[in-house]
């Protein structure tokens, strides 16, 4: 079940690479896109050739014993080589020096094939068995694979991690961190072959197929890398959904403050029967405006001397520094509502009045803090009001 799920995830990731190629064909150099395509094709094919279904299709004989096993390792090396070339091409453009690592990749693949051939593997059930004469070459084959893969993946991990760390928050940074996860998973997937080396040295045999953990790590690798590389295609839709959820949460979190102001100044409510008709973002925007309208309607009832007293009282009451400003706002607003009910007016306006903010998100974040202080008014705000009075 887990193995099948891993293969389906690999298929989804491979489809993602295809979509990315179609999307970016007009904005990226053809060479760069071929590198990305090469990575996706190699990594997906390397998983396919090692599946039980492929072994059953090939049947007993040299194809299953030699071709599939060697092809799986060679395709993994090719995928890593394409990934390094793609990274260098994106970061350094047409001036990227691709030849050194390409020669490193080619030489490793040739040496790997020679070592594999000299090891003379034999398939016995689900294991690959080596003779005493072929065992040193089999160990050399695995050592070459690990050496090349871990060096190259370590280089990729360092590049992506450094870039993600310094990138500005946004889709680019999220995509880079997904690539970091993918490369880290690939590193773990490759390092898992150390267990094969240990088994090979002790018993002169290794499992001929990928185990479940290897399949899962492979799926995480291709899924994360595909997601990171194609983030520009699907991130707007995800960001839109997240934005609506955040707006709805903010809409509900400032409701206690809005309810108190609507009760004190009923005229601020605009068509209350259609609260979410325009979507969560518009409803939040409208609720922020209504709160500010209520604040303006109570302007004449704000005590200009209360904020300073409330701030000092809040600190004496042990209010955290980060919550002092919101607590003072809640205290002065509660006092203004009471003054409005009693008909008390003040000739002088407060020295610092909260002004409208063009950024609805920032304004809503501030009102959430005030609303949080408002909800605690029985235990905290009333205490501060008493100390300030």
UniProtKB/TrEMBL annotation:
Signal peptide location: none
Ranges annotated as spanning the membrane: 6-22, 34-54, 98-118, 143-162, 174-192, 212-243
Keywords: Membrane, Transmembrane, Transmembrane helix
Ranges of residues in domain DUF6545: 245-376
Family matches, as Pfam families: DUF6545 (PF20182)
Protein name stated in the entry: DUF6545 domain-containing protein
Lineage: Bacteria, Bacillati, Actinomycetota, Actinomycetes, Pseudonocardiales
